[in-house]
């Protein structure tokens, strides 16, 4: 779907940017020797083919993936944008609770109501064979096949309703005659096997059932109540919505942009199929019983097509029911799930599915076309594929494209180009066809008519069609089929159904509706990659960069920024939020099994990355995370002498913040710092003994406005920043426990950018523990350099979280400044959420229960209060994505402007990432490469500037890297080196001023043990200048002169070059004379 190379018109001199007159002029000048042809795909690409399925062999658990599902609990959740994003990102989605929270009246679609409204309405009846959902037999019941028997007939709604009622009463009677054990067995099976036992399967094998389908509910007079009820749904799911592309077709297409109603008895099947032109679909189960669904992602439809061909089945027009074992053998994953009454199923672009009624149920279904490039491209590809196989495309994509261009303003660049490409190709084809027909001397009549299809090849006719009178009717043909009937077009009437000037007007007026860039949103700053100083770009090598710097005149201290124009915007989005948007729904994930946790890890990761915050339930319990290891009592036993930071605070409600006298509400939060050991903490703790805490861990002491009178003027203590990750020997169990989490949540993981910093940063790439009592606060803050955060509540109580998305941090910053509070260094707490709402700031508010994991995304502002006794563990993670890296750089530059220290040394980190990782994300690669270019250039210019000042520069190659910050402005320096530690004699343990090392000269065969030698020469003491070349700490392998491999450990130069140059093989200093080389080499 990502490849849109077909957006290239056949003439190189033409493109979608030219106007309509230029296209028409080019067509007039074109010579025509044959019938003009066109395809909506790339002219250089072959006609659409069956796509190859992904090559990667799936594991057994991936062949049976968990079905993406959403459980909604209130109306605000249903209309939250994340629901739309989630649906558009999954092959199929089961949505539970939607009809309930919207008070959707399912009874309007029950059989009784439908019969009463239109008893004589036409219903298509499919005669089928009753069988279990995991098998499919031929009509003789002697062989399993893919071909499914489904004979078509028609009846009235009332007649089928009588049949459905008769079957229901019959089933109920049979159920009442069964004994209690049979009833229990039936409840356990839940009709999954149609409630049939082995002895009953033989009886039912010859039973035929009828499936009532395709009842049209488009008539507004008859179905006014039903159509009105459907408007309660969110826009993505509505059949009549401005967000539905199919509303612009211009006429009703039954079952696509209209509602269809289905009536089923147990065993009725909808055979395998893709939706017309790969459009999305919506299906709601009215009940009273369930349906069982099977679905295959769009990427594997080619494999299903090939299997249908192997079984001699028409993939598009035939009725087929796949064998699941055969699908698994061919590496095809299958989603399986039950749709209960009231559940809505979203079928995404091109997904293949089939379903069977487990009991008696009615369903309503329709198609939708979301305005996405993926949807439009899949529809176009299906359109062209149908043309090659002589199958009619139910959706007239050309007419739809011109209608969209006429009525819609496109802001999606990719979708705009796709539609514009279609307009370009069809306008060109229209002009060429018109010219060809005129050359034939045919007369052309002009009149408007509805969308037509060629009766022979079934392709859509646009602009020009050829009508042949037959039985007092005009039968439409395309040009190719008309010429096959009559090469001179005798007897045909050429009809120009579209006015060329109207098309020109539509084409020229269809332009991209560019949204204003100054929308105040905190999007990542755009780097002008190709316009860096001195004509350099990230494709230049290091030598080119240095050469450019050598020619640069330096009249002042060289300066640089990691952005060409450093901007950290503070303006929030200007769109005024509605009341429900100021109290947004909390994105939450609930996992049920360990297999599900690992199977859905990529989806969970993507879900977390795409939301400001995510609350993950039950993950700790299903992976067996031992939270007791992080309880206060166990930590004290291990780290009794460990020093911790204590914050003395005022006890108050989470929605308020008072000054010290409790007289005024303020932003600044009282938060006095002190230090103590965990041993002292044990003596000082008087709130509740740890035994009672652990015994009554489910009891919670809540801090609410009602009990504020009883807690005023009390002081409480938050014990924070307990760093338990640096003491690896003592906290092995805790470290082992953290490795149970998915890799993207782990503190020490290859997927964590912060793992590549050269040193440990407390609470950033190490674990921090917070010991909290009721009322304790983690005051308002953003994480260091906007990195993501993971927090686990290890019990026993809960915490209340308040989170503001990154886009609105500028408002918080301004409010802090307005209230004389330092946003970065002070402790602050919004005294009233209403103040934030008045400034159009949305606030996520939720409780983190014991075992819950909170994912805090890039740059979010948050503050937390404990509602009861609990411990929390927190750390930062840096996912390898461009947004994380760029926002970290933005905060790095913002800190420089405000003289704040960036806790994360971004330059050091960038060079380490370049050295130790392989980046596959092009955007992230360019960001890191740009940082390296700018810092390399700055390093060289600074070196040049210092040398011009006559300052002596020392070199420290080979020393251990450490990070340094300026004492005054706190700006991070380029990597500096730490001198080697003092050497200590192994025998006397005294410090040595000189390093003892073997003589590098005395080596070779004559110095072997067999010949009486010691294999090494006499031990000599290196001078202080040579000490840094200690062969036991650094290994040099390449001669600095001849670049050949050096076999002597500790040498920079091979023996041959050292002898010729009369230098020391180790340090390279000039020797007095060659004769003394052997004695003075060390």
From TrEMBL:
It is found in: Nucleus. Its cofactor is Fe(2+). The keyword Methyltransferase applies. InterPro entries: Corepressor-Demethylase, JmjC_dom, KDM6_GATAL_sf, KDM6A_B-like_C-hel, KDM6A_B-like_GATAL, PDZ-binding_CRIPT. PROSITE patterns: JMJC. This is Histone demethylase UTX. Belongs to the UTX family.
């Amino acid at each position: 779907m990502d490849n849109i190379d077909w957006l290239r018109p056949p003439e190189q001199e033409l493109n979608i940017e030219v106007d309509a007159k230029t296209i028409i002029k080019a067509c007039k000048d074109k010579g025509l020797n044959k019938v003009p042809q066109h395809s909506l795909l790339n002219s250089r690409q072959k006609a659409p083919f069956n796509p190859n399925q992904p090559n990667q062999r799936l594991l057994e658990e991936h062949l049976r993936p968990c079905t993406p599902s959403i459980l909604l609990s209130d109306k605000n959740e249903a209309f939250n944008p994340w629901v739309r994003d989630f649906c558009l990102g999954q092959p199929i989605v089961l949505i539970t609770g939607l009809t309930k929270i919207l008070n959707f009246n399912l009874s309007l679609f029950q059989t009784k109501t439908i019969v009463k409204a239109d008893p004589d309405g036409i219903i298509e009846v499919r005669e089928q064979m009753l069988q279990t959902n995991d098998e499919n037999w031929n009509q003789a019941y002697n062989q399993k096949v893919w071909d499914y028997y489904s004979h078509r007939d028609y009846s009235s709604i009332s007649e089928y309703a009588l049949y459905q009622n008769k079957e229901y009463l019959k089933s109920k009677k049979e159920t009442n005659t069964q004994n209690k054990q049979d009833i229990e067995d039936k409840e356990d099976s839940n009709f999954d096997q149609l409630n049939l036992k082995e002895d009953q399967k033989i009886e039912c094998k010859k039973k035929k059932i009828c499936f009532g389908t395709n009842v049209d509910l488009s008539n507004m007079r008859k179905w006014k109540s039903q159509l009105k009820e459907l408007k309660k749904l969110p826009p993505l799911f509505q059949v009549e919505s401005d967000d539905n592309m199919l509303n612009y077709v211009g006429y009703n297409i039954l079952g696509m942009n209209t509602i269809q109603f289905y009536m089923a008895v147990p065993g009725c099947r909808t055979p395998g199929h893709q939706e017309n032109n790969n459009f999305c679909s919506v299906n709601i189960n009215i009940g009273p019983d369930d349906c069982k669904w099977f679905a295959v992602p769009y990427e594997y439809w080619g494999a299903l097509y090939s299997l249908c061909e192997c079984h001699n089945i028409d993939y598009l027009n035939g009725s087929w029911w796949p064998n699941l074992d055969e699908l698994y053998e061919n590496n095809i994953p299958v989603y399986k799930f039950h749709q209960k009454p009231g559940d809505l199923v979203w079928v995404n672009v091109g997904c293949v599915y089939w379903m069977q009624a487990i009991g008696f149920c009615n369903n309503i279904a329709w198609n939708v076309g979301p305005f996405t490039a993926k949807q439009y491209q899949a529809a176009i590809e299906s359109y062209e594929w149908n043309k090659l196989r002589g199958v009619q495309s139910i959706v007239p994509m050309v007419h739809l494209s011109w209608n969209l261009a006429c009525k819609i303003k496109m802001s999606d660049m990719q979708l705009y180009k796709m539609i514009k490409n279609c307009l370009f190709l069809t306008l060109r084809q229209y002009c060429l066809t018109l010219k060809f027909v005129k050359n034939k001397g045919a007369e052309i009549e002009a009149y408007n008519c509805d969308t037509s299809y060629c009766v022979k090849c079934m392709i859509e006719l646009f602009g020009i069609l050829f009508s042949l009178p037959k039985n007092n009717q005009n039968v439409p043909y395309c040009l190719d089929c008309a010429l096959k009937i009559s090469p001179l077009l005798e007897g045909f009437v050429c009809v120009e159904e579209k006015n060329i000037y109207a098309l020109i007007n539509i084409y020229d007026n269809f332009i991209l509706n560019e949204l204003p860039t100054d929308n105040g949103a905190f999007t990542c700053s755009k780097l002008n990659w190709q316009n860096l100083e001195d004509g350099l770009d990230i494709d230049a090598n290091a030598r080119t960069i240095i050469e450019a710097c050598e020619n640069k005149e330096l009249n002042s201290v060289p300066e640089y920024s990691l952005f060409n124009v450093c901007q950290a915007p503070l303006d929030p989005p200007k769109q005024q939020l509605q009341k429900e948007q100021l109290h947004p729904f909390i994105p939450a994930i609930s996992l049920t099994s360990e297999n599900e946790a690992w199977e859905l890890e990529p989806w969970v990761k993507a879900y977390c990355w795409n939301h400001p915050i995510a609350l993950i339930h039950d993950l700790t319990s299903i992976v067996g995370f031992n939270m007791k290891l992080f309880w206060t009592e166990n930590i004290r036993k291990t780290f009794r002498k460990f020093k911790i930071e204590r914050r003395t605070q005022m006890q108050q409600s989470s929605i308020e913040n008072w000054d010290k006298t409790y007289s005024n509400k303020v932003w600044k939060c009282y938060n006095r710092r002190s230090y103590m050991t965990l041993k002292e903490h044990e003596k000082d703790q008087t709130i509740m003994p740890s035994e009672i805490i652990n015994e009554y861990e489910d009891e919670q002491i809540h801090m609410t406005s009602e009990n504020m009178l009883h807690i005023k003027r009390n002081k409480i203590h938050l014990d924070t920043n307990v760093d338990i990750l640096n003491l690896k020997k003592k906290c092995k169990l805790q470290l082992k426990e953290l490795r149970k989490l998915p890799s993207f949540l782990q503190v020490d993981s290859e997927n964590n950018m912060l793992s590549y910093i050269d040193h440990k940063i407390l609470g950033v790439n190490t674990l921090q523990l917070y010991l909290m009592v009721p009322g304790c606060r983690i005051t308002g803050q953003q994480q260091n350099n906007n990195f993501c955060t993971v927090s686990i509540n290890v019990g026993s109580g809960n915490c209340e979280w308040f989170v503001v998305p990154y886009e609105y941090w500028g408002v918080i910053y301004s409010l802090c400044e307005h209230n004389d509070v330092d946003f970065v260094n002070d402790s602050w707490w919004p005294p009233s959420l209403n103040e934030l709402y008045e400034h159009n700031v949305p606030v996520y508010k939720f409780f983190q229960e014991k075992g819950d994991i909170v994912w805090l995304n890039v740059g979010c502002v948050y503050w937390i209060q404990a509602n009861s006794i609990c411990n929390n563990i927190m750390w930062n993670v840096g996912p390898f994505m461009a947004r994380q890296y760029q926002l970290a750089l933005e905060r790095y530059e913002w800190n420089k402007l405000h003289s704040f220290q960036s806790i994360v040394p971004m330059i050091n980190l960038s060079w380490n990432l370049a050295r130790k990782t392989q980046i596959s994300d092009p955007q992230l690669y360019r960001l890191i490469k740009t940082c390296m270019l700018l810092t390399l250039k700055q390093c060289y210019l600074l070196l040049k500037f210092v040398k011009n000042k006559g300052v002596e520069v020392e070199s420290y190659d080979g020393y251990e890297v450490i990070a340094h910050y300026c004492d005054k402005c706190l700006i991070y320096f380029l990597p500096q080196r730490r001198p080697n530690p003092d050497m200590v004699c192994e025998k006397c343990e005294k410090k040595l001023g000189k390093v003892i090392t073997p003589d590098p000269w005395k080596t070779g065969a004559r110095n072997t043990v067999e010949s009486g030698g010691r294999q090494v020469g006499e031990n000599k003491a290196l001078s202080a200048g040579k000490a840094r070349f200690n062969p036991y700490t650094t290994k040099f392998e390449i001669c600095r002169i001849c670049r050949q491999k050096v076999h002597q450990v500790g040498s920079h130069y091979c023996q041959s070059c050292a002898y010729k140059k009369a230098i020391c093989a180790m340090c390279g200093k000039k020797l007095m004379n060659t004769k003394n080389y052997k004695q003075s080499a060390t």
